[in-house]
Amino acid sequence: MFKLQLVVPNLHAEREEGYCLKFVDSALGLAEDQMSDTALIAYAIEDRAGHITDDVQPPAGLWSVGFAETGDDEGHVWFYTPDGSIEDSNGHYADYAAMNEALDNSLVNPGWSNQVDGITLWVDVPEAPVVYDVPAVPDNQEEAD
Protein backbone atom coordinates (compact mmCIF):
# COMPACT_ATOMS: atom_id res chain seq x y z
CA MET A 1 0.00 0.00 0.00
CA PHE A 2 1.17 3.51 -0.81
CA LYS A 3 0.02 6.80 0.62
CA LEU A 4 -1.04 9.80 -1.47
CA GLN A 5 -1.07 13.30 0.05
CA LEU A 6 -4.25 15.10 -1.05
CA VAL A 7 -4.06 18.31 0.97
CA VAL A 8 -1.12 20.36 2.24
CA PRO A 9 -1.94 22.86 5.00
CA ASN A 10 -1.30 26.57 4.52
CA LEU A 11 0.90 27.39 7.51
CA HIS A 12 0.38 31.10 6.87
CA ALA A 13 -3.08 30.76 8.44
CA GLU A 14 -3.58 32.98 11.48
CA ARG A 15 -2.16 31.54 14.70
CA GLU A 16 -3.65 32.56 17.99
CA GLU A 17 -2.83 30.89 21.29
CA GLY A 18 -5.80 28.93 22.57
CA TYR A 19 -7.40 28.55 19.13
CA CYS A 20 -5.71 25.41 17.85
CA LEU A 21 -8.68 24.03 15.92
CA LYS A 22 -9.26 27.38 14.24
CA PHE A 23 -5.61 27.35 13.08
CA VAL A 24 -5.78 23.75 11.80
CA ASP A 25 -9.11 24.16 10.03
CA SER A 26 -8.17 27.56 8.57
CA ALA A 27 -4.90 26.10 7.28
CA LEU A 28 -7.01 23.50 5.49
CA GLY A 29 -9.27 26.15 3.94
CA LEU A 30 -12.37 25.66 6.09
CA ALA A 31 -14.64 28.55 6.99
CA GLU A 32 -15.57 29.02 10.65
CA ASP A 33 -19.09 27.67 10.10
CA GLN A 34 -17.56 24.38 8.86
CA MET A 35 -15.41 23.87 11.99
CA SER A 36 -16.18 21.72 15.01
CA ASP A 37 -16.68 23.69 18.22
CA THR A 38 -13.59 22.27 19.93
CA ALA A 39 -10.60 20.04 19.23
CA LEU A 40 -12.11 17.43 21.57
CA ILE A 41 -15.30 17.34 19.48
CA ALA A 42 -13.29 17.06 16.25
CA TYR A 43 -11.35 14.18 17.85
CA ALA A 44 -14.57 12.44 18.95
CA ILE A 45 -16.00 12.66 15.42
CA GLU A 46 -12.87 11.11 13.89
CA ASP A 47 -12.67 8.51 16.67
CA ARG A 48 -16.29 7.39 16.13
CA ALA A 49 -15.55 7.09 12.40
CA GLY A 50 -12.54 4.86 13.16
CA HIS A 51 -10.00 7.39 11.88
CA ILE A 52 -7.85 7.75 15.03
CA THR A 53 -4.64 5.83 15.67
CA ASP A 54 -3.67 5.93 19.35
CA ASP A 55 -0.01 6.88 19.37
CA VAL A 56 2.25 9.83 18.57
CA GLN A 57 3.92 8.51 15.43
CA PRO A 58 2.00 9.06 12.18
CA PRO A 59 3.49 7.88 8.87
CA ALA A 60 6.66 9.74 7.91
CA GLY A 61 6.62 11.89 4.80
CA LEU A 62 2.98 12.98 5.14
CA TRP A 63 0.98 15.78 6.71
CA SER A 64 -1.28 14.34 9.43
CA VAL A 65 -3.39 15.74 12.27
CA GLY A 66 -2.61 15.08 15.93
CA PHE A 67 -5.13 15.17 18.76
CA ALA A 68 -4.87 14.98 22.56
CA GLU A 69 -6.97 15.55 25.63
CA THR A 70 -5.93 18.42 27.89
CA GLY A 71 -7.97 17.82 31.02
CA ASP A 72 -10.57 20.41 30.03
CA ASP A 73 -13.45 20.42 27.56
CA GLU A 74 -11.34 21.80 24.71
CA GLY A 75 -8.53 19.34 23.86
CA HIS A 76 -5.66 20.15 21.52
CA VAL A 77 -5.09 19.60 17.78
CA TRP A 78 -2.00 20.17 15.60
CA PHE A 79 -0.29 19.17 12.37
CA TYR A 80 2.43 16.57 12.09
CA THR A 81 4.69 17.71 9.25
CA PRO A 82 6.28 15.29 6.77
CA ASP A 83 9.57 15.41 8.75
CA GLY A 84 7.80 14.56 12.03
CA SER A 85 7.95 18.03 13.55
CA ILE A 86 4.79 19.77 14.75
CA GLU A 87 2.94 22.96 13.83
CA ASP A 88 0.15 24.28 16.02
CA SER A 89 -1.49 27.57 16.94
CA ASN A 90 1.44 28.34 19.26
CA GLY A 91 4.25 27.68 16.77
CA HIS A 92 6.71 25.03 15.64
CA TYR A 93 8.07 22.15 17.75
CA ALA A 94 10.68 19.50 17.00
CA ASP A 95 8.35 16.71 18.12
CA TYR A 96 5.43 15.72 20.36
CA ALA A 97 7.57 15.68 23.52
CA ALA A 98 8.74 19.27 22.92
CA MET A 99 5.19 20.49 22.32
CA ASN A 100 3.86 18.68 25.39
CA GLU A 101 6.66 20.18 27.52
CA ALA A 102 5.83 23.67 26.20
CA LEU A 103 2.20 23.02 27.20
CA ASP A 104 3.24 22.06 30.76
CA ASN A 105 2.86 18.34 30.02
CA SER A 106 -0.90 18.80 29.87
CA LEU A 107 -1.52 16.51 26.88
CA VAL A 108 -2.86 13.01 27.51
CA ASN A 109 -4.17 10.19 25.31
CA PRO A 110 -2.55 11.41 22.07
CA GLY A 111 -3.60 10.10 18.70
CA TRP A 112 -3.39 11.04 15.04
CA SER A 113 -5.55 10.93 11.94
CA ASN A 114 -5.43 11.62 8.24
CA GLN A 115 -8.76 13.46 8.59
CA VAL A 116 -10.30 16.38 10.49
CA ASP A 117 -13.62 18.21 10.12
CA GLY A 118 -14.44 16.57 6.79
CA ILE A 119 -11.02 17.12 5.20
CA THR A 120 -8.93 14.09 4.20
CA LEU A 121 -5.23 14.95 4.11
CA TRP A 122 -4.01 11.66 2.57
CA VAL A 123 -5.28 8.27 1.46
CA ASP A 124 -3.94 4.77 0.97
CA VAL A 125 -3.64 3.76 -2.67
CA PRO A 126 -2.84 0.28 -4.03
CA GLU A 127 -0.06 1.39 -6.37
CA ALA A 128 2.57 4.10 -6.35
CA PRO A 129 1.11 7.30 -7.82
CA VAL A 130 2.48 8.34 -11.20
CA VAL A 131 3.97 11.82 -11.15
CA TYR A 132 4.20 13.63 -14.45
CA ASP A 133 6.65 16.44 -15.06
CA VAL A 134 4.52 19.06 -16.82
CA PRO A 135 6.50 21.98 -18.21
CA ALA A 136 5.40 25.42 -17.07
CA VAL A 137 3.90 27.81 -19.60
CA PRO A 138 6.13 30.89 -20.07
CA ASP A 139 4.54 34.14 -18.86
CA ASN A 140 4.47 35.56 -22.37
CA GLN A 141 2.51 32.64 -23.85
CA GLU A 142 -1.03 31.44 -23.30
CA GLU A 143 -1.97 27.81 -22.86
CA ALA A 144 -3.53 26.11 -25.86
CA ASP A 145 -7.17 25.10 -25.43
Description of the molecule:
The protein has 145 residues and is α+β, with helices and mostly antiparallel strands. 17% of the residues lie in helices and 24% in strands. The chain has helices at residues 20-27, 39-48, 96-102, and strands at 2-5, 64-69, 76-80, 86-88, 91-93, 108-113, 115-116, 119-120, 122-125. The strands form three sheets. The chain has a five-stranded antiparallel sheet with strand order 5-4-3-2-6. The longest helix is centred in the N-terminal third of the chain and has 10 residues, at 39-48. It is globular, with a radius of gyration of 17 Å. The model has no long low-confidence stretch (mean pLDDT 91).
Number of helices: 3
Mean of all residue-level pLDDT scores: 91
Low-confidence stretches: none
Form type: globular
Main sheet specs: 5 strands, antiparallel
Number of extended strands? 9
The amount of beta strand, in percent, is 15-25%
Structural class: alpha+beta
- Fraction in helix: 10-25%
Question: For the terminal residues, how far apart are their CA atoms?
Answer: 36 Å
